[in-house]
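Appendix B, Record 12. Input sequence as logged:
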Amino acid sequence: MMRERGGKLFSLLALSSAAVLAAGGATADRGAGGMSDEDKIEYRKAVYKVIGVNFKPMGAMVKGKIDYDPELFARNAQRVADVSEMALEGFRGGPHQGNTESLDAIWEEWADYRQGTERFQEQAQELASAAQGGAEWPQLKKQFIQVADTCKSCHDDYRED
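Logged structural output:
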């Protein structure tokens, strides 16, 4: 019970913090003040950090490095799905100047980048739904790999090594 409440609290805090930043980003895009380029870069780094922290244990389970824990897998899959919905906010109005690994190709090919991010969001939601719905482990592993592949495709094209 404590683990579940702690997980929900973490998700709520992460989502609340990101939502506040996203609201600032929306304001900045309208030219009414708001976030600096560096703030937007930090926002998107935070979003992807939360995704990565939750993604890694699932990857370790898929690779057999740690035992499969259905509760942890489902919780982390839901977090990834929830936070993935915020990913585009930190890129709006770019390119942004500052400490970033993002390539200018994101903005030069915005429609493609946006489509890739939306595909990631859809795949992440499918994984969360399958994990919450009690899908069998082979199905979850297959869906996890699909989510990971969507991540990799964007990293290959839009992120410095």
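Residues 1-6, 19-33 have pLDDT under 50 and may be disordered.
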